[in-house]
Amino acid sequence: MRPSSKVKLPHPPHLEWQSSLRTKKQTVFMRRKLPFARFLIGAFVVFRMCDSACNSRAEEVKDFGRDRLNNSPRHADWIDIKSGQRTIKAFVVYPERKDKAPAVLVVSEIFGLTDWVRNLCDELAENGVIAIAPDLHAGQKFEDLDGARKATAALSPEQVKADLDATSDYALTKIPACNGTIAVCGFCWGGGVTFEYANENPKLKAAYSFYGVAPDLPDKVKNIACPVYGFYAENDERVDATIPKAEELMKAAGKTYEPVIYKGAGHGFMRMGEPTNPQMREADRKARDEAWARWKKLLKQLK
Length: 303
What we know:
By secondary structure, the protein is an alpha/beta fold. Helix content is 46%, strand content 21%. The termini are far apart. 35% of the residues are buried.
């Protein structure tokens, strides 16, 4: 007996209409969803590009300088300093000399107490002073610009001043090799802090402000008891625009302020001009060399 063959019956008219309607709705739905899908894909690509760009920027401020520290003949220490109810760390480097030496507080950039800052401390000690850099960022170091900005903005001025006071007192009273002379230097954010701190600590004998924003009110300079030496970049109008007002205020208050602007340099030229910096810029190297030549002469004036 032969198997019966199935006969395909046509759909009733109302079913064909429903099927057609579903197909049309699906087509419209897909057409509406397609732009959104393209948006999501595009957003993902942009996110990845942004992520890559952020990583590239992080590499631009990548730390360096440890080789010099590892090969330096000068003695260096990490020390604990009591600051109110807190204990902070500081890095200190001693010069090779047979007599007591002045001490220079070193205030870092927004990136924290990096190897580059400690490298600079060794350079200062090579030029005859005790360099002491308090860790104002409490152990945090940054290669990401945004993270550095946020962390530095979170530091209260009161805490920064207290930590600098504690470090100054430590250098003057607990470092036997110090001759009783104290000065301060700082870079970028630290350069602005340096100018501010000169107004807060009458014991300072000199302040060296590197490309930091200068004060804009009489109350911010009236208590300064030491000369302030400024080191600025030509291509840094954000900072340079604050110099004329500071000159006016310092002159009116009878204070010494000697700013120098280094031609062709950009902000951060002491770091960006460092020969061991993989991203070294030639104009910044020239400015750095000129700034160091000037700074060395000024350091010799510390007694």
